[in-house]
Write a structure and sequence with these properties.
The structure is a single chain. The chain is of the alpha+beta class. Helices cover 22% and strands 24% of the residues.
């Protein structure tokens, strides 16, 4: 059997360094990579979400992350939403909170259908 070629996306320092490792070290690297991927793809816990975020159930959700209903400020200092009073804020809107490379991110999903 011929030694496999590394993927073209693999950085050169890894492509050159990995084949130099002994089998035990490669197994340790493999385990680390699996745990790292699991960590980066884990769901966002509700205690990590903003206080104003209210998790919602989304049927047939195939995307990773937690969808929440949230009221937001627009950033306009002259708008009454700048007071921080939830009743003056805009929305509610749906946002998806997810992890990307270990960092929590959010994206706008839309307006809730029932609102």
């Amino acid at each position: 059997m011929e030694e496999p070629s590394p993927p073209t996306s693999l950085p050169k320092y890894l492509a050159k360094g990995l084949p130099k490792q002994d089998t035990e070290t490669l197994h340790e690297i493999q385990n680390y990579v699996e745990v790292l991927i699991e960590y980066r793809e884990q769901s966002v816990d509700t205690d990590e979400l903003p206080e104003t975020a209210e998790p919602v159930e989304e049927p047939d959700n195939t995307e990773k992350g937690t969808v929440v209903k949230e009221r937001v400020t627009c950033g306009d200092d002259n708008c009454k939403c700048a007071s921080g009073n939830p009743s003056d804020m805009h929305g509610p809107y749906l946002y998806r909170y997810y992890r990307e490379n270990g960092t929590m991110k959010s994206e706008y999903v839309g307006k809730p259908e029932s609102e």
